[in-house]
Amino acid sequence: MTDDGMNEDEDKVAVDAGSVTEASVKAPKPSVILYPGDQLRDRRNGIIQHHYRHSEIPLDKLRAFIIYASGVIEVYCTKLIREEVIAADYQHQAYSYLLEDMSQTHRESLLSQCDLFDDSLCGSLGNFRGLRNKLAHQPHDPIDWDEENVPSKMTLGIDIIDVLYEALRSGDASESLSDHSL
Q1: How far are the Cα atoms of 68, 83, 121 from residue 136, in angstroms, in the given order?
Q2: pTM higher than 0.85, yes or no?
Q3: Of the N and C termini of the chain, which has fewer Cβ atoms inside 10 Å?
Q4: H, E, C per residue of 55-122
Q5: Interval 84-116: pLDDT, tens
Q6: Per residue in 117-138, pLDDT tens?
Q7: Which of 70, 61, 68 is nearest to 107 (CA)?
Q8: What 8-state DSSP symbol labels residue 14?
Q9: Which residues, 6 or more positions from 26, have their beta carbon under 8 angstroms from its beta carbon?
């Protein structure tokens, strides 16, 4: 598995002589989509239980959860751009730029400008990203469990992942994303 979530063997294609056509050479590569939602639900439940049992926030676990969920969202947004916005001939070359050099805010903006993300989804992404940025960039600042609405934001992150996963899996991201309920 490579950094972009793709199989290493994806670039290797066994071909019989004479079976290569122009269409087979230019066909887009299939996208491997990993779904971590169930694992994240278990982690979220563990963090919430720890908080209520011990009256403290397990910051390391919360930070790891939020940053991991954000990473999944970033990869899914990158895959959506690659598969829905970038022409098939350029998808492979564009992927590393989209993932490594384009900010998440810019990815979301591009998907919104292309009418794939509506205001509701953009608002949900921004809401979740706010907690992620606070945990990632202000690691020593205290987090107020209730004021930050931490359990709801953890659930929101999983819900966003579910929506994006379904859009990628469906084969018709535009239709799938128009039916979301965030």
Answers
A1: 11, 29, 22
A2: no
A3: N
A4: CCCCHHHHHHHHHHHHHHHHHHHHHHHHHHCCCHHHHHHHHHHHHHHCCHHHHHHHHHHCCCCCHHHH
A5: 999 999 988 898 899 899 999 999 999 999 999
A6: 999 999 999 999 999 999 999 9
A7: 70
A8: -
A9: 88, 89
